[in-house]
Structure formats: structure tokens, C-alpha cells
Amino acid sequence: MTGAEHGWLTERFEENRPRLCGVAYRMLGSLSEAEDAVQEAWLRLERTDTAAVENLGGWLTTVVSRVCLDVLRSRKSRREEPIGAQVTEPSVVRGEGADPEAEAVLADSVGVALLVVLDTLTPAERLAFVLHDLFGMPFDEVGSILGRSPDAAKQLASRARRRVRGAPAPPEAGRARQREVVEAFLRAARAGDLEGLLAVLDPDAVVHIEAAARINAPAAEVGKARELRGASIWVKQFVALSRGLRFVQPALIDGSVGLILAPGGKLSRALTFTFTNAKVTRVEVIGDPARLRELDIAVL
User: Fold this and answer.
1) What domains does the chain contain, in order, with CATH numbers?
2) In what order do the strands lie in the sheet with 201-209?
3) For residue 199, what pLDDT is reported?
4) Fewer Cβ close by (within 10 Å): the C or N end of the chain?
5) What is the pLDDT of residue 217?
């Protein structure tokens, strides 16, 4: 390959890089793994006779998708640690680490709740949903990547879509109000706005924090749950622990609006709310991996 040809190929690849990174991140839920998958596609491109490639963008998307599929299948075969098992230190919960700003921005743009739900799908379901529903790839091309028929690929995407959207629920007039209250709760907690937080809490509101969800618990209380009654009693401490948290977004949790904390798309904590007369009367912070796996989480 001449220098001019290599330069042309590099330019075409860079044009496709944003889309490839988008596909890979939604497939893998990890910025570093997504970047590795895209880099692998470049290495394969350099070893390929591009004269035989009619659609370079489609070829690169196919290569990245297959690399991601291999990664997802490898994860499953290794039976990785349970959800949240590795997220115990405050630094990890707060999204610190390799390029946390880029990871946080990307997670927000994609949707933390979507990443959490995608993580519950099989590798084939995840690929079919991401490529077709999020990037508009025809089912015949999706099926070709999976080694299945277009109809089979369509069924995989349909199953994934139902999981992402959650089980059908009867119309609920209060759902929109729940979301308003939860989003106001999150804004106030992030901003350290005590008055704003108290405005959405019932004066007698209770907060229950599971032992597995506690951060920086005193030595004498490690392994113990904590429950406090009276919003004015616990709200200041709650704000102190919440400020600066990343990867937190509203989601449907067992049919009700709540919050999920998912660094890198891996569910670490869930906050469920009990509402009475448009006020929060109870907040439960769930961190036990077994309980987190049982939650029915869907995208709002």
C-alpha cells in the first residue's frame, strides 16, 4: 500500500470513527473496550485488500460488531462477578478512574438506564437491538453478522425491545408526576439544595439504606442497614453523600419511577421511592447484588 493509499484509508476510517465508537459503546457499555474494538477494526482494515470492499462504512460496522459480539460472548462464558460486586469504593461509585469525564458524558448521552437494560440481554439480542433499533441496520445484514436468518434477527430485536421498554402497564396518571418529583429530588441532591430536597419530601419521610449500599459507614456499623425517620434529620447527610455522583438517571423500577446508579453501565445502586400526595414518604437505597438482579428495570 502506497503512502497516498494509506492516507486515503486513514481519512475514510476517521470519518467512520464516531459511528463505530457509538456502535461499540452501546454494545459493550465500556468506553475503553469500545475504543479497543474500533482499534481492532482499523488493524484488520490495514490487512485487507480494500479494492474488494464496496461499502467501507458497512464493512467497518460489521467488523466492529463481530469484535463486540466476541467480547460479549467471552464475558458470558467467564461468568463475570455479580452485578455491582466490584463497585464498593466511593471513588468507583463516583465515576473516577480512566477518563471519567468522557465516560460520564458518553453514558449521559446514551442513557444509563438503557445501558443497564442492555446488560441484561443475551449477546445476540443486544447486537440485534443496537444495530437495528439504534443504528438502522437492515435485518438481513444483522442476521449475516449473527449467522442467522433475517427473521431470526428480527425476533431477537423484538425480544430485546420488550425488555428495554418494560412489561406493558396500565395507564397511570401519576407516572408523570412521579417523574417530576424524582427528577427534582435528583437535581436538588446533586446541587446540594437542601430546601429543594425538603420540598419534595414528606416531613416524616424515611430513608432506608441497605448494608451493601452504604458508603463510608463507621467501623461499628459496617454490614448493617440504616434507617432514619424525618426528612430534616437525614437530608443534609444524604446530600453530602450524593453531591458529585455520576451515572445516575431516572428509570422505571418495578413499574414505578426511581433512580439507578450505574458506573460504566453496571448497576451498582437503585433508589426506589414511595409516593403519597405527590410527596416522597420513603426512599430505599438498594445495593445487594441479589436484590438488584431481581429488579425489573426499564427505560423511561
Assistant:
1) 3-82+122-163 (1.20.140.160), 174-298 (3.10.450.50)
2) 226-229, 201-209, 279-286, 269-276, 256-261, 248-253, 297-298
3) 95
4) N
5) 66
